[in-house]
Amino acid sequence: METSITDIQDALSSGKITSRQLVQAYLARIAAYDQAGPRLNAIVTLNPHALAEADALDLERKTKGPRGPLHGVPLLVKDNYDTAEMPTAGGTLALATSQPSEDAFAVKRLRAAGAIILGKTAMHELASGVTTVSSLTGITRNPYDPARSPGGSSGGTAAAVAANFAAAGMGSDTCGSIRIPAAFQNLFGIRGTRGLSSRAGMIPLSSSQDIGGPLARSVTDLAILLDATVGPDPADPSTQGAGAKIPKSYLDALRPQGLKGARIGVLRAMFGAAPEDREGLEVVDRALDAMRAQGAEVVEVQVPGMEDLLKDSSVIAYEFKFDFADYLARHPGAPVKSLAAIIAGGLDHEEVDGRLRQRDAAERRDSEGYRAALAKRRALHDLMVKVMADQRLDAIAYPTSLRKPPLIGGDDLGGGPTCQLSATTGLPAIAIPAGFTPSELPVGLEFLGGDFAEPTLLRLAYGWEQAARPRRAPFSTPRLAQGHAPGPLSSTAAAAAPGGHGPVAKVRFKYDPMTGMLSFDARVIRLGGDRVTAVTLQRREGEGPGPVIAQLVATGRTAAVGSLGLSARERSDFLAARLFVQLYTRAVPLGVGRAGLAPGAYRAPSK
Hints:
The chain is of the alpha+beta class. It contains 16 helices and 21 strands. The chain has helices spanning 5-14, 19-33, 50-64, 105-112, 155-162, 179-184, 219-229, 278-293, 306-310, 316-329, 339-344, 350-360, 368-390, 420-425, 454-468, 568-575, and strands at 43-46, 74-78, 116-121, 133-134, 138-139, 168-173, 188-191, 211-216, 263-266, 297-300, 395-401, 429-436, 442-448, 489-496, 504-512, 517-525, 532-541, 544-553, 559-565, 579-585, 593-596. An 11-stranded mixed β-sheet has the order 1-3-2-6-8-7-12-13-11-9-10, sandwiched between helices. A 4-stranded antiparallel β-sheet has the order 14-15-16-19, with no helix packed on it. A hairpin with a 3-residue loop joins strand 4 (133-134) and strand 5 (138-139). Helix 2 packs antiparallel against helix 3. The longest helix is centred in the middle third of the chain and has 23 residues, at 368-390. The radius of gyration is 26 Å and the shape is globular. The two termini are 23 Å apart.
């Protein structure tokens, strides 16, 4: 639970735990929370050989020693990475049985480092959106609020890593698909420089914009996964020459005072001004102020011409149909051979159908619009590099998204995310946790750097992490109790007048810690000739009463059964016994009596 790869490796090396036990522990959490409890629905499939691989790695550790920091460590990968022992579907029903014959380059590298690929994670269908919904897996939920999306398209990886289903995970980013889910799940996620890591063996969305990368709960874990997965690959021409730009280890860049002396340019043009941006803006501005306090020079920066170059610079619509067809041609066992076949067969989700039809309408890759977009990409890359050099910036900062994660079934992010700047320029960007809104939803901040400036970005992120300690586990996936999810908390309150005379409001409560739902059964007795005005749930403010949170029994009624979705503050108040029940009647309009809620201890469910 919230254990870093370094600490896991120390525990494995000391014999405190084995890789088999570690796999079993993560599988128990997946069983408790993926299709039960908050029903995150983040896992597509599990590796049937995970325990056998763990046994082999435990034996290898005893006989030969560990290969490195990932030896025997369970990881998860997005379902667009080819895996030889599990299907690779890309979130589409059409490819549910598509079994690659070999691993993707990054997966091979992880296995060579000793990692256990525990399973595959859900994703937005064919990476064609940022809410993580697909015809294969349906809807994935955010562990910080299961009524909301985890972002996407790597939403399954982010939700799983945040919920401690594995030590860390791999995603991919074409326009924010690592960084948006990282921001929405209080994680660190990095999109590397174009060419830093191989795309070989990944279902493509856009060959010009795609790149794989890690999502993790700490910067150190992020650096460890980068060390394992980056580097040149003959199968991916974009990685030629990358080896000369990669340090011996990204861990060498991590310094506790990493922000001290750094010059960070704040790009206000990437900040939103809509009312729905306000809460996120306050979080990001507080984070920037805290960075100043840590010794960073934080300055405002403008980039004339940036917005014009960003407009229509995405090449996904020009490349996807053709890149996807090339991938399918390399996989002769795939059930379909084209995007058109998926659409014609009704094998895609309604939420992506319109977008896929638009992309399938492209007649050829090489068009005037495509050439214009490529020219904009080159120009914006050169412009951003020049701005950073001219203004002596270590990085440019802007929010990943100021908007709250969208409600499932509601509107998408709209103008919220700022994903395109890194995707268009090919420059690296790291998403870091900036803090939380008053409703306990994570907000992410992004640093953009120069070509192959990943060490600088990691140094800044690590300095922030050590100063702010921004990581906070989600409420909906708590520590297991004896291998099981904690059971509900029960409480009974009886609000009556002092001395016990007159009417009484008796309320039984049951609280589900995985969903934040508080169910209640309320009854008012001994009214005589009096009449109920209300039975309320309220918060204590110091020694006195605070405002009404909810009405439990309405005027004129004597009983009610229902449930309430508690906010983050209300959950905290309930667990701290700061909530109370108050009975109001016509005869005593200012309140007959009140009774506090005293939640019992967690209990493990019976087997």
